[in-house]
Amino acid sequence: MHCEANAIELQNISYHYPDGTEALHEVSVLLRHEQRVALLGPNGAGKSTLIAHLNGIIMAQTGTVLVEDVPLTPQTLTTVRQRIGIVFQDPDNMLFMTTIEDDIAFGPRNLGLDEAQVRERVARALAATGLEGLESKPGMHLSFGQKKRAAIAAVLAMEPAVLVLDEPTSNLDPRGRAEMLRFLKSLDVTLLMATHDLDAAWELCDRALVIDVGRLVADGAAHAIMSDRDLMQTHGLDVPLSARL
Prior knowledge:
single chain; 10 helices; globular
């Protein structure tokens, strides 16, 4: 049961890199619980910078980030990071322990949970990601698709309110991609997915945000936005194959 608070709210977020480049310009967006949202845009549009604002990897220079109505500040950073789970594109950056089980347990242990609670969370995360039986393996012995799911499991074990995925289907072969899509469909979680895989976004998401040169240029029903050929091409995107059939 989700609380009544909004999942994430960005209020007029702007951000300039040290060289003066504007990465985000007055981005405002409200994400509600139980939505599945695609974050779309060409390379360099500002997607990764926006994601990094959601749990304080980058702190807003202008504007406010709220997570479940709690403003993100240095004082609330720890609390917010327990509510926003970010899974980055390269799973090798997230798997560093001796076994997958230890990778998944790392976050809950750092929360100070007792060992019984840690084991319960690990078991649930393994079951959710279909990795039961692989918990004693080191990350280096998994396929790339399994590594991606293990990285997601490590985040799910923290029981976040929102799961944020950066290119979850990238570098997967067709079988691995199909498995990832089936897995993501099965998750009962609020989802924000930054992706260039527009067919995956079409299949998984009910809402789409389009960002270009740091500006939010479209926000609405996923299929309506991704079917808009003029909009998509104007912002360096193709209409997904699924929309052309």
